Amino acid sequence: VNPCILFASVYDKPDEWRDALRALVPSLDFRVYPDVQQAEDIEAALVWRHPLGMVKQLPNLKLVINLGAGVNHIFDDPDLPPDLTVARLVDPGQTAQISAYVAQHVLAMHRQMPELRRAQNESRWNYIHPMPASECRVGLLGLGNLGRASAELLGRLGFSLFGWSRTQRELAGVSCHSGVDGLQQVLSQSDILVCLLPLTPSTTDLLDARAFARMPKGAAFINAGRGATVVEGDLLAALDSGHIRHAVLDVFRQEPLPAEHRFWQHPAVTVTPHNAAVAEARSSAPQVIDNLMRLRDGRPFINVVDRSAGY
Amino acid sequence: VNPCILFASVYDKPDEWRDALRALVPSLDFRVYPDVQQAEDIEAALVWRHPLGMVKQLPNLKLVINLGAGVNHIFDDPDLPPDLTVARLVDPGQTAQISAYVAQHVLAMHRQMPELRRAQNESRWNYIHPMPASECRVGLLGLGNLGRASAELLGRLGFSLFGWSRTQRELAGVSCHSGVDGLQQVLSQSDILVCLLPLTPSTTDLLDARAFARMPKGAAFINAGRGATVVEGDLLAALDSGHIRHAVLDVFRQEPLPAEHRFWQHPAVTVTPHNAAVAEARSSAPQVIDNLMRLRDGRPFINVVDRSAGY
Q1: A214, A226, A245, A246: which one is catalytic?
Q2: pTM for this model (two decimals)
């Protein structure tokens, strides 16, 4: 018999996920939180920012699948059993969305859209001679699935690419670095810095006043990773001084971003509401079903999160 | 002996072009308008919006090379001898810039950036669930070098593509149309319409009230072709009614766009200062030199404009 799965996200549409999963396994027992029914039936959960207290209700939970790439919210749950398997989605649709988001905003920074918008507000024709992309250096922090896909797209657009990751990577067309010294190297050569890092103890507060000061004067910053990677007050100071000319932020230490936060009305900040990418039901359904079959058959899971690394 | 070339553009840097051309032919006689010296020496001209009266000063002019793709400004010169050869640049650098501009703004429209900016102005977290690119239909008007490169990039980003051109084309992954009926087909299926058409008698005023009415309600419009393809009052009416939700415009009937023009302050218009793309000296120099050698040797020119078609 197939395991029963509980869906818990107020950000995603349960019907889409139910339909996509049942298209593969018509008899799937798919329940939507908080309607758990016989809680002891539930062996797997498909979650995004699940409510605290939920895990405690599920005595037979064996697998939690995160509806996305960043799993830090799951580990924030103090009730999470230490031996519970956590997997994440590695969704080609989500990867495409993230790399498109990165490309869109790197291009907007490269083409000086904030400056052009200021000129437009003043009804002023401000001809800016476009520079070849090859003369613009883009630094990518994080070279996992999302970083690699972004690098490939930015490479096709002709940008000069630098990359940084915890463990050293080799990527065609990207000058790859790792470690503390490597980070300094990438920061100091990034006309546009893109952060796609997961949130772990070692990435928390990684981008602080010293990091921003390392970047070239007038550099731009794009964060589509996690908010707590950035010391927000330090970023604001770097924006106020003009050392960082613009920041495009999809993620924040507190989400939704509080109405009184300075980011909202800062002229050098573009806020997007943590919607750079979401897992798509149709393209993700096969790997969810795959993990449910592995659970049924006792085989090893795929896309398992390394809890010691935190991603 | 190599032909002498006259450079005439206030939008481009003569030094860059001289250096790029002399890197290939060190002895090249390169003059910059209005310093023509012995005007009878000059056999070729490299121009962008050359001043009226210039051509009359050059009794031995045999070739005009346009510093870009759109040649309509050259044909606006009443002194242009009917048998003078006009060539244009087909520059890979410029093609890359145009397709990047198109991708940037198609993505911005797809991701509803104007709506997100409005929300930001109100310090309002407006979560918009991102839609897969495949569910967004992009129509491309013009399938020459620039249109084809744009289609390729948009295809990689996953958009559903429709294309229209004067003569029927076949492009992988693009539903191609031509003729009057074909235009209606493309307009009616374009969630985002991108115009890259050259300005000719048959494209002048092509996009009028009827054309905009054909588009789906809430469609977006991007013009990186020529301003006079659009009846600007009709576009403004379509934006005022909300039938067209946003327009991104790089080109205008009058450039620079006059300070009093309604486009500047219209909340549903993004103005860029005709800088979507420029020919790059380094990547274009070989084809300019090629045409100069052809002039010297009496061989047929490359990238010649068909004066009856107007492009």
Answers
A1: A226
A2: 0.93
